[in-house]
Amino acid sequence: MSGQFPWAHATHPDWRMSASLCLAQIEQASRSGAGAAATLGFLYLTDHHAAEAGEILAFLRERTGVTHWTGAIGVGIAAGMAEYIDEPAMALMLADFAPDDFQVFSGAARPPGPQARTPDGRRAAWTALVHADSATPDLPDLIQDMCGKLAGATVFGGVSSSRHPQAMIADTVLSGGLSGVVFSENVAVASRVSQSCRPIGPAHRITESSGRRLNRLDGEPALDVLLHDMGMPEGLPPARAAAPGQPSAAIQMLQGTFVGMGSGQAFAHGDYQIRPLIGVDPRAGALAIGTDLEEADHVVFCRRDRGAAQADLIRACTALRETIESAHGGMDRVRGALYISCLGRTGTLFGGPSAEMHLVQQQLGDLPLIGLYANGEIFKDRLYWYAGVLAVFL
Q: Over the stretch 121-175, which tens digit does the pLDDT of each residue have?
């Protein structure tokens, strides 16, 4: 293996034109010609091309000679410093992994087990790129199950945001369940997650909850703890003193508030899931969260705005860059990258169209980068919302 992965992206109503433009870019970027040394193709399509995805895949396979492909279909895709939202577009990248170091999987093709070994004795199921169909039930459980099948227990990827039944690519175009690629221990991947939020206070221990209802934190009414973290000015009426049916000024302040939830141990490493605050019970001092609290035993309240989103993405990129420089010999070792971001992060959150992708490139440099705007993001053993997952191949 040598050099960066050839990659390309294009937009055009006619998929043949987009595919041809992409192949021309690939051929220009690769001294050996399009797909001459490649063994695996990454492909992301907007769902304007969903009905033609099978034809696109067959065309690219014939023109590049690459047999194995993985990817997903969504409302939006990303490439370099560009984002394509709700318009016909495609992005692809070709990798030259050793054939024994990866395996495309789906419901019809099982991945290797955690005990499997490559011919050189390395663990065959170390990390995995996972794409999921949003219509699949029990996705969090399936993701955890997938993580348990890996010796390295590391998963990254996202949930298709396609409005078409065809949602994923795993050597064919398919729907339902999980699909993707399992990589061996020989494939070095560094990854990070950004959640676009900034904590507004310390982590709190959950002392009473039920389902999605958060009743008490650190022994106090959850709403009172939140208002304290927000630094509610003195003189505002207590949250539970408002007239029935009339939200107090304090309750109005809660708009745009999110809840980070997880275990105490996870919080020590900044590893928790962000969920929206969807309601309050002023009289009981309780909060309603956008998902069941399940095994979470701690929460932290967060705000999401442009400044928080930019700062957290910079933090994730900085941590990733430091890992690459300290453990892998520097950024010149980067061969290519995938970025799975939430469709809900597009628009004005980062300052305008493509601002998120510009920020990633500013932090990590000009590197081969394609990705998907997803309906849920996958990192480690969890399903995230409103997150960005960046994975770099070295």
A: 999 999 999 999 999 999 999 999 999 999 987 899 999 999 999 899 999 999 9
Query: Quick check: 118 and 151 in contact, CB under 8 A?
Result: no
Q: Can you say whether the dihedral through the CA atoms of 39, 142, 299, 342 is positive or negative? A: positive
The strand pairing partners of 128, in sequence order, are 155, 182
Pairing between β-strand 127-132 and β-strand 154-159 as defined by DSSP bridges: parallel
Instruction: Answer yes or no: is 1 within a domain.
Output: no
pLDDT interval class at 181 (50, 70, 90): very high
**pLDDT per residue as tens digits for the range 245-303:** 555 555 566 777 899 988 877 676 667 888 889 888 888 999 999 888 877 899 999 98
How far apart (Å, rounded) are the C-alpha atoms in residues 209 and 101?
Answer: 45
Using an 8 Å Cβ cutoff, are 251 and 239 in contact? yes
User: Which 3 state secondary structure label does DSSP give 59?
Assistant: helix
Q: Could you say which of 303, 322, 356 is where a domain stops?
A: 303
Only one residue has tokens 């995230």, namely 384
Among the candidates 280, 303, 326, a domain finishes at 303
Say how many residues make up the chain.
Answer: 394
Query: What are 325-353's pLDDT values in tens digits?
Result: 998 888 989 999 999 999 988 888 898 88
The strand ranges marked E within 25-88 are 40-46, 68-74, 76-79, 82-85
* CA angle centred on 213, ends 269 and 209, rounded to 5°: 65
Radius of gyration of the chain measured on its C-alpha atoms: 22
- What kind and span of H or E run contains 343? none
How far apart, in whole angstroms, are the C-alpha atoms of residue 128 and residue 349? 29
> What's the CA gap between 12 and 29, in Å, rounded?
21
Instruction: Quote the tokens at residue 156.
Output: 């990254």
User: What is the rounded distance in angstroms from the CA atom of residue 76 to the CA atom of residue 277?
Assistant: 26
Whether residue 359 sits in one domain with residue 274: no
Residues 267, 348: one domain?
A: no
Decide if 175 contacts 106 (C-beta within 8 A).
no
Residue 52, classed as helix, strand or coil, is: helix
Domain range for 285: 198-303
Which H or E run contains 103? strand 102-105
Q: Terminus-to-terminus CA distance in the chain, angstroms?
A: 10
Amino acid identity, position 272: Y
Return d(Cα 101, Cα 183) in angstroms, integer: 6
Instruction: List the beta bridge partners of residue 378.
Output: 157, 383
